[in-house]
Amino acid sequence: MGVHAFKPKAGETTEKITINLGVVDLGQIDLLVQEGFYSNRTDLIKTAIRNQLAAHADVIRETVIRKTFILGLQHYSRQDLEALQASGERLQIHVVGLASIATDVPPELAKATIDSLVVLGAFHASAAVKAALADRIR
């Protein structure tokens, strides 16, 4: 089971969010784009979010450690879960970033090996696995 540093790169998985802004804020963003400070609205919004995350990096780091989260990408393959099942171990998954379960993992195997799942970010798994773990996702 690998943990990978999370830094969005071209072509890497992203999640879409929707925000509502007041017309004055939106107008100011458009003005900065028009003046060449940012290439588009999304560029400004991503930059603002990254700046806020950087400003709070110490709090994020301390919370991740205190709550025993994995920060980044965590992928579970069928082989990983079968090995856990064979050893009698069970997982408590706590991820800030992306947790994913391979598409070939049957729902029964996921249910037999995963006790709890807390993901702050995104969780990718088949619909059947998500349904099987629905009572364990927090």
Automatic annotation (TrEMBL):
Stored CDD domains: RHH_NikR_HicB-like
Record-level GO BP terms: regulation of DNA-templated transcription
This protein is called Arc/MetJ-type ribon-helix-helix transcriptional regulator
Query: What species was this sequence derived from?
Result: Pseudomonas duriflava
